[in-house]
Design a protein that fits this description.
The chain is α+β, with helices and mostly antiparallel strands. It has 9 helices and 23 strands. Helices cover about 20% and strands about 45% of the residues. The strands form 4 sheets. It has a 5-stranded mixed barrel. The protein is globular and about 95 Å long. The relative contact order is 0.07. Bound molecules: zinc ion.
């Protein structure tokens, strides 16, 4: 960093130290200390803060010197960040901490560069649409995305709208393939492939939510509308001002009465225009979640825990010795599954085939499988699946535990299509 810049930062630090402290330290001291921090690779903001803490001892006004971090620059495990953003949603939630019920608040913030989910450990008394300055917050990672945390030492202040540049409020034109939980307001045209409504309770108030699936020429995505836009199946709509939430890592389009939703008659999208995205494993690994994709690969491992298992009748968790860790002693319900690893040369994923998919793949009904001894059963599974190439359809999740496909349908891919084609060609030639 040029000496001039360093001096400015040192001046910054000095300017907010009280007069008493100023007597014991001068600008060259601070500059020297900053220099040393930088030599050790400490980011400038953190270095300034550490020096402030050393002299001022308090966190309260430390954050005021920090430069604002844009939401797209947030990374996990940042301490004391300051942001300016608009509150997109904020909702209370009851959780249990060390056996005690506690109310927290969670929601989404956005600025001109993107959006971020946040959790607050106390009521920050802001509303949807407010522009806020949040100082001394910290970040962590949850299911592969960065989260902002508002703790006891975080300051939240409501600002005027012009604290954010105008483009922060302007929807960005995008396609379904481009959707990401970190983007701000969107401008998206898509066809409604499925829609359903249900009653939910939000803050003790009954609300109707319309949810379903949207599609365009790049893929499909789930959506939920918190307002009755009179949407119908196969309508093509343009949503301006909706935003993206992460639902199990998968981008979900969310919009309410603040969004503008119009129906498109001309250039309407047809159902046939919406493809099922075919992806490679490495692409799956690049996204926290993908919705309704198709991927092909070879089963390289049948995992332990495949076969018959018992589930808790109340929570569906797998149980042992009729003991559920949530519900105590229960009468387990018998279930069947196959867990395996699938590889396509560019990456791997793990997936579980439920009873129906397993029966289909093994070509045997559950009753027949039940009569086998464990060895015969595991041989049957291995013979039918190991080394076989399968095509999976489903949603994928990529997080610290690896890549998982929640498979909806599965089928074997005939690896000998080329050989078969040759055979067919020969037969046809023989006929001539
Ligand atoms: Zn249970």
């Amino acid at each position: 960093m040029p000496s001039e810049d360093l001096k400015k930062h040192a001046q910054d630090v000095l300017s907010i130290l009280g007069n008493d402290t100023k007597k014991s330290v001068n600008i060259d001291d601070i500059k020297g200390q900053l220099e040393r921090f930088l030599e050790y690779g400490v980011p400038i903001n953190q270095a300034k803060q550490t020096i402030l803490k050393k002299y001022a001892g308090s966190n309260a006004y430390v954050s005021s010197t920090l430069e604002r971090t844009k939401l797209s620059d947030l990374e996990s495990d940042m301490r004391s960040v300051k942001i300016v953003a608009q509150v997109i949603t904020i909702n209370p939630k009851e959780i249990t901490v060390k056996g005690e019920p506690r109310q927290i608040f969670y929601g989404i913030l956005r600025d001109e560069t993107g959006s971020v989910s946040f959790t607050s450990w106390h009521d920050i008394k802001v509303q949807n649409g407010d522009v806020v300055e949040i100082a001394n917050a910290y970040t962590n990672e949850w299911q592969g995305t960065v989260q902002l945390n508002i703790g006891n030492r975080t300051q939240v202040e409501v600002k005027d709208d012009d604290a954010l540049p105008k483009e922060a409020f302007e929807p960005k034109k995008c396609t379904i393939e481009e959707l990401q939980p970190t983007m701000g307001a969107i401008d998206l045209s898509a066809i409604i492939l499925e829609i359903d409504d249900k009653q939910v309770e939000v803050d003790g108030e009954k609300k109707k939510v319309f949810s379903g699936i949207l599609g365009d020429s790049t893929g499909k995505a789930p959506f939920s509308a918190w307002y009755d836009f009179k949407l119908k199946k196969h309508d093509t709509i343009q949503i301006k001002g909706g935003y993206i939430r992460s639902w199990k890592g998968i981008p979900q389009i969310t919009f309410d009465e603040k969004a503008t939703v119009s129906k498109i008659k001309k250039d309407a999208i047809k159902v046939d225009d919406v493809p099922r995205r075919t992806v490679k494993m490495y692409e799956i690994e690049e996204h926290p979640g993908l919705y309704d994709i198709q991927v092909e690969g070879r089963i390289i491992e049948i995992q332990r825990g495949s076969g018959f298992i018992l589930r808790c009748p109340q929570c569906n968790r797998m149980i042992r010795d009729n003991q559920c860790r949530e519900h105590g002693t229960v009468d387990g319900i018998i279930d069947f599954r196959i867990k395996c690893i699938v590889d396509d040369g560019t990456g791997t994923l793990s997936t579980t085939f439920n009873k129906d998919l397993s029966e289909e793949l093994l070509g045997k009904p559950e009753l027949e499988l039940k009569e086998m001894d464990p060895k015969a059963l595991s041989d049957t599974i291995k013979d039918a699946l190991f080394g076989k190439t399968v095509q999976l359809n489903g949603n994928t999740v990529h997080d610290q535990f690896g890549t998982t496909c929640i498979t909806n349908t599965v089928s074997f891919v005939d690896q000998d299509t080329e050989e078969e084609a040759n055979k067919l060609m020969k037969e046809l030639e023989g006929d001539m």
